[in-house]
Amino acid sequence: MSLPGKAASKPRGRQPFYRDLSFQVLAGMALGVAVGYWFPTFGINLQPVGDAFIRVIQMLIGPIIFCTVCSGIAGVNDFKKVGRVAIKALFYFEVVTSLALVLGLVVINVLKPGVGMNVDMHGMHSSAVDAYVAKAHHVVTTSEFLLNVIPHTAISAFAGGDVLQVLFFSVLFAFGLAAIGERARPAMDMIDSVSGALFWIIGLTMKIAPLAAFGAIAFTVSKFGFGTLISLGKLILEFYLTCALFILLILWPIAKVNGFSLLRLMRYIGAELLLVIGTSSSETVFPQLIDKLERLGCEKSVVGLVLPTAYTFNHDGTCLYFAAAAVFLAQATNTPMTWHDQLVLLAVLLLTSKGAAGVSGAAIAVLAATLAASNTIPVESIALILGIHKALSSAFVFTNIVGNSVATIVVANWEKALDRTALRSELKTGFRPADTSMGVLKQSGGTSAGS
């Protein structure tokens, strides 16, 4: 097997722009907007195209987390290091998501997009929110949340697609492999082989990513139309501005302090960012982020622990959404909220936001639970934003992906598990698909991480 360093030293020719995945995804989205606008009847039937792509990725998420965590932790064979990484990651997540909530509250209070709407909730009812209202009054306590981290069975964690449960089982299993030492070698070899096969499937699946973005955008425009985006446009503009401010005022300085360019990082993961805009699902790019972050020089064990955990605990964009949406609904329904009420809301959001899943559809349910827990804003008022939720979710999932990528690099830097030469080289040249298959790439990556 050739060494990763030698493969990286080979000159990489500049590929035609039309073969770049970012361009293909963007072209698919543009075509989807056109089809959704001009042929709405056809466009609304394209929903299965985007959904099928998401399901394929979701099918692979659990096994990929298991293989990555086991290979990373067991390969390091250092329990103290795993503990340090986990503590540093959780500290970073809590600080940054708290800053996101504060920024979201400040901007929505300054711009006040909901003031003047004067919505009367007594004369308003929507069957679309009934399910959310019913679930909202069952608020998950801290003890219930912690207990839910432990799956009923190992299989149920993978069957249910719960990222945190899969991560919990994977960490324990990895510790078990590390504890038995050399006897774990056959199992490790098998895990590496399975990982290579899974990433080969991901590489094949990504070839249809432009088609998936096309179908998802065509369906969205066909169903909701541009009229939905124009109405309640103030909230959409306010939220997009809030996400931009978060990236500029919080993530950019963090990246600067840790010695890398945020703009170049966003360019490096540009295809993934465009894809989540189209699908509104962060899960669709999880496997690709693992590969790219390792190529950026982050040690495999750090990526394998930090990124899956970030998908549960580091929802920067979702926190911005919760803060903005909650206060907007209070403004629109003329619900009085003092700064004391908003601080209470902030405390509730610090807990409820940790349960938000990677797929944006769960955000509405968590928002409903938050409103019920705060006992101030009418839960039924979420009907006001259902129509524009898709436009909002594209922005907050985009921000989540940028935030999780930054978090992984930062924790790797803190842990001195970051190859700065690889980081500078990759960010300078930009991402280029390897000549080898994804499976070979992942196996060679595992070799380099252990060296």
Q: How would you sum up this structure in a few lines?
A:
InterPro entries: Na-dicarboxylate_symporter (IPR001991), Na-dicarboxylate_symporter_CS (IPR018107), Na:dicarbo_symporter_sf (IPR036458). One of its GO terms (molecular function) is fumarate transmembrane transporter activity. This protein is an all-alpha fold.
Write the layout of secondary structure elements.
Elements: H1 4-9, H2 21-38, H3 40-43, H4 47-76, H5 79-111, H6 130-136, H7 142-148, H8 154-160, H9 163-179, H10 185-205, H11 209-230, H12 233-257, H13 262-268, H14 270-279, H15 286-295, H16 300-313, H17 316-332, H18 339-352, H19 361-374, H20 389-414, H21 420-429, H22 438-450
Helix pairs in contact: 2-11, 2-14, 4-9, 4-10, 4-11, 4-16, 5-12, 5-16, 5-17, 5-18, 5-20, 6-19, 9-16, 10-22, 11-14, 12-17, 12-20, 14-20, 15-16, 16-20, 17-18, 17-20, 18-19
